[in-house]
Amino acid sequence: MKTDTTTTTFENWTLRVRPGTSPRILLLLHGWTGNENSMWIFTRHFPSEYWIVTPRAPYLAQPGGYSWRAPAPRGSWPTVDLFRPSVAALIEFVERFAAASQLDASSVDVAGFSQGGALTLTLGALFPARVGKMGSLAGFAPEGAEQILTPGRLNGKNVFLAHGTQDQIVPIDMARRAVQLLEGAGAQVTYCESEVGHKLGADCLKALETYLAD
Known about the structure:
The longest helix is centred in the middle third of the chain and has 22 residues, at 80-101. This protein is of the alpha/beta class. The chain contains five helices and ten strands; from the N terminus they run ββββββαβαβαβαβα. The protein starts with 5 loop residues before the first strand and ends with a helix. The chain is globular.
């Protein structure tokens, strides 16, 4: 597998990129207070065909790092409406980056951790034709998702969710609710629970690798 990555800027974005052997894009979205380096811990055995692209979120977070939503009261959960600006910006970014790099932006695979997982589900719910595979790791379905994930909305989609039963940041019930919403919208859900906290367990990482390789 290719291991060489480059941290670079593209237009107004800071990102880290690993070139792949095909025009296929895997967009990885970090969590709250993360950055363009946060997701690489997962990627060691990801398929070499992917161009892996990890953009830095556009908003500053407190006490540090970056966020996919505008600043909001501490302790409040992101909503679909708060994510909409980042969703629109990401779609434009992917289109322009793909055109500049001669890649395929017609349908990209996306995975995210925590807040990035919630953004992944929001992106797929709002623009299902633009997203292939979706992975939410220790994530959740934001408030308002139930209004978009109507029956049939995600027909033909295979979505991966992983969560820790001991997660004290995003409770396990939020992941189970997301599974119900996705299945209600017609998605086939691959769901992995492990006895860990707010992270991805080793068994679920292997399941994610298998999901991306299929």
